Amino acid sequence: MPGGGPEMDDYMETLKDEEDALWENVECNRHMLSRYINPAKLTPYLRQCKVIDEQDEDEVLNAPMLPSKINRAGRLLDILHTKGQRGYVVFLESLEFYYPELYKLVTGKEPTRRFSTIVVEEGHEGLTHFLMNEVIKLQQQMKAKDLQRCELLARLRQLEDEKKQMTLTRVELLTFQERYYKMKEERDSYNDELVKVKDDNYNLAMRYAQLSEEKNMAVMRSRDLQLEIDQLKHRLNKMEEECKLERNQSLKLKNDIENRPKKEQVLELERENEMLKTKNQELQSIIQAGKRSLPDSDKAILDILEHDRKEALEDRQELVNRIYNLQEEARQAEELRDKYLEEKEDLELKCSTLGKDCEMYKHRMNTVMLQLEEVERERDQAFHSRDEAQTQYSQCLIEKDKYRKQIRELEEKNDEMRIEMVRREACIVNLESKLRRLSKDSNNLDQSLPRNLPVTIISQDFGDASPRTNGQEADDSSTSEESPEDSKYFLPYHPPQRRMNLKGIQLQRAKSPISLKRTSDFQAKGHEEEGTDASPSSCGSLPITNSFTKMQPPRSRSSIMSITAEPPGNDSIVRRYKEDAPHRSTVEEDNDSGGFDALDLDDDSHERYSFGPSSVHSSSSSHQSEGLDAYDLEQVNLMFRKFSLERPFRPSVTSVGHVRGPGPSVQHTTLNGDSLTSQLTLLGGNARGSFVHSVKPGSLAEKAGLREGHQLLLLEGCIRGERQSVPLDTCTKEEAHWTIQRCSGPVTLHYKVNHEGYRKLVKDMEDGLITSGDSFYIRLNLNISSQLDACTMSLKCDDVVHVRDTMYQDRHEWLCARVDPFTDHDLDMGTIPSYSRAQQLLLVKLQRLMHRGSREEVDGTHHTLRALRNTLQPEEALSTSDPRVSPRLSRASFLFGQLLQFVSRSENKYKRMNSNERVRIISGSPLGSLARSSLDATKLLTEKQEELDPESELGKNLSLIPYSLVRAFYCERRRPVLFTPTVLAKTLVQRLLNSGGAMEFTICKSDIITRDEFLRRQKTETIIYSREKNPNTFECIAPANIEAVSAKNKHCLLEAGIGCTRDLIKSNIYPIVLFIRVCEKNIKRFRKLLPRPETEEEFLRVCRLKEKELEALPCLYATVEPDMWGSVEELLRVVKDKIGEEQRKTIWVDEDQL
């Protein structure tokens, strides 16, 4: 056998090469085989041929390291490769049986369907057994298909029943629609009558305004003349005193001249002096001659005499010197005396002048006080006459409404009976469909299942599937007449209930009592409150009511619902809305009761505090030079003044409790509201509650049981001529005093004993922890100057302050503290104007904004005020044909809409002209801009003037909101970032990510979904940003995508516009809004950041439009000024610093703007 070894090795190598060649062909097609082969199909046949064992099959099918089908198929090929040529042959036979196309791909031959391997291994019996197993599998699959068909048939029957029920629902909705149209016709008929009354009221108001203006001008002229008279009197007194002084001085000089010595006396004295000198010389000569001839003894005597004479002369000289000194002192004393006398005369002159000035000013003050008393008497008389007219007119309308409501109740009863009849018919149809299904159930089961299906399979499979596929059929065996469809689509019957009259019910407070909402918003929010707070008896009509609400056209009702005798204002709109509003619960929970925003605006908008300018409008010559009619200006000013509401500011309902109902410890008493102010004093505010601070001894309040320390909860009675219920435990200090002062007639006070809360309040006030019971935060919408606005604190627009007292020192001023933007701590404190005073300041600033535009801008645009006046001429001619519409009213309304558009267009320029005049105009609709709203109002007025009420349009477009209530939020995670202008967002995001900011910034991944999925998600959830990639797919970003980025503690950079800010805040995501200011100075620096080439004028115009959208944001934003950066790298650095700074700040959100 020595030569057999090499031959055997050659033979083995040959076999191995052949085997490798065979498997090489398989490996060439490994990708296709592993992609299309299902290992679960091939393993039974491979085990039957004993190529693989049970362990290999379990590894291929159940190994955790092989998650995908491709991995399992690859592992199966590796196992067969180890089996050699036998594995290859059996694998090809399995491919020939299960995958003939792959068999042809590998071998290049047509499949013959021969099973030589299995016949050799198992024989014909094994092949038969294998084929029987395959047949059983196919039968089971066919049974599953039959069961699925039965499920689809059951689902089809269920959808048919739902279709019938939806048809009945549609009939019911049509009934509601018919009723709606009937009420609409009735309202239109009343509207025609109301328009006539309004025209008369407007004419009277216009005449009264003209007379008031003339009287004011006469009074001002009289005051000017009186001032001139006083000045002339003052000047006359001064001249008289000067003349008197001059006269006194001239008399003194005359006396001095008269008392001087005469010329003859002077000559005589000189002559006597000469004689004495001559005599003295003679004596001297005699003495000298005698000296020469006298003897020595006589000479000694003469020497002694000479010596004595010299001593006498010396003594005499000393006396002369002494006399001279005394004369000098006398002369100085006389000079001092004269000087003091002159000063005394000057002081006497000044004293007399001041005395006369004092008398003059006293007289002037008395005159002014008399004029003020006269003005107050006239004002009180006008208020009294107006209130009487309003009361009389309201009584007439109440009587008319009484009969109208009786007719409405009968119609409602008829409609409810018809609706109940439709529901009964629906129940009958539902029962008939259930009976039909029960009768056909067994037949459907017998016909749908195959005849050769074993009984055990039927009992197991179909018995389990029935409750899941058709839940209604599973309940058919019940004897009850109710079903899931009954409870879902056919609501239980309740006896008809009369709608509550909301005229005497005080609902929960709104977040912003100043903003004037549209009536369509009232209706929508009213239905939302019905869904949350309605009783079980009223829940039945909830789905239908909500569906019907969506069908209502958004037409304003504010212009036709006023009942006051004056041009319709906020109070008249609210009063009619209270009478006709849908049903609401008396006591509501702390939910979003947005429908109450305007129900509290029932105060008189003309009774104002006695501070500030007496007239906030002006009729100067500059207005007339602009081409404005003085009458039109007066109409616009009247419209502005009607939105300066005087009712005190009310904090948000989220910061205080709800209205408490009568509890076991709550007591009540009835008092006379006319004298309630003089009987008791209050202490507290919205944060601590309102307490009785003192009660007048012997008053009715003391006899009724009110004592110091009692907490007032609710006041029910007539306030400003209307029956109201005011929750005093949540009122501010200013509002509580306002309510008590304006009560009339019998009122009911609900109170409870709370001495502990009162003592804690007094102790905290004595310790200086608080100044009152008020506490809330506001955001300023205008600049306030301590020098110009009669306050002690200067603030800027968008500053946040903490209000601590709404009646500081019993004046109409608010004590507040500036809030630290990072720690929320109170900083420096001071006073700011109250809400009504701030409204007047805002009104003045708006008028200055309109009237101070440059003449170049006004002349250079097509919408100049002079052009407006010209365009109004044909409108006036056309409108005179309709007796219901006043032509002057149409002109003023149209002019007002154009003025709003003018303010919106020129706003940014005026902010640059004078930073002290910056204001933030909050639109009545949060989603609309002022310019768009005013433009729509103007277009509507041009098309149909008789349907436009200028004040209702003003309520939609503009609200005088000087202070916005804000709430603090805190975010530990990094917040997403929005850039504006939006055209720079994409470039800035890319630059930030490329500049090494990947650790702090990132972009969120968007979801790619189909059009149907996008429409479904748009209805069910919030979508922050969406973009259509192609006609069938959308790219969208949801709040979950942004939260996933925040969970990684990174800033999510968004390329969406700032319009998604509200949706983000509603989803509890608080973005950082970064505004990059663009102006003519720095526009050239943005050339590298623009994604596509644009002209500088076009880019600047787009940026201006985006800048106006910032005012409507419910949160604060950061600004990158032009002087902060000079290059793109510096801009990126400033942007990063701003983002870090905003991340550390507290988030303040105006929830009323959401």
From TrEMBL:
GO cellular component: CBM complex; cytoplasm; immunological synapse; membrane raft
Ranges for domain CARD: 18-110
Keyword Cytoplasm on entry: yes
Biological processes annotated in GO: B cell differentiation; B cell proliferation; canonical NF-kappaB signal transduction; CD4-positive, alpha-beta T cell proliferation; homeostasis of number of cells; positive regulation of B cell proliferation; positive regulation of canonical NF-kappaB signal transduction; positive regulation of CD4-positive, alpha-beta T cell proliferation
Keyword list, A-Z: Coiled coil, Cytoplasm, Disulfide bond, Immunity, Isopeptide bond, Membrane, Phosphoprotein
Coiled-coil blocks: 222-448
Biased composition, class Acidic residues, residue ranges: 473-484
Any one GO molecular function term: CARD domain binding
Biased composition (Basic and acidic residues): 518-529, 573-587
Biased composition (Low complexity): 614-625
Subcellular location field: Cytoplasm; Membrane raft
SUPFAM superfamilies: DEATH domain, P-loop containing nucleoside triphosphate hydrolases, PDZ domain-like
Domain of life according to the entry: Eukaryota
Subunit and partners: Homodimer; disulfide-linked. Homomultimer; polymerizes following activation, forming a nucleating helical template that seeds BCL10-filament formation via a CARD-CARD interaction. Interacts (via CARD domain) with BCL10 (via CARD domain); interaction takes place following CARD11 activation and polymerization, leading to the formation of a filamentous CBM complex assembly. Component of a CBM complex (CARD11-BCL10-MALT1) complex involved in NF-kappa-B activation. Found in a membrane raft complex, at least composed of BCL10, CARD11, DPP4 and IKBKB.
Name of this protein: Caspase recruitment domain-containing protein 11
Species: Rhinopithecus bieti
Gene: CARD11
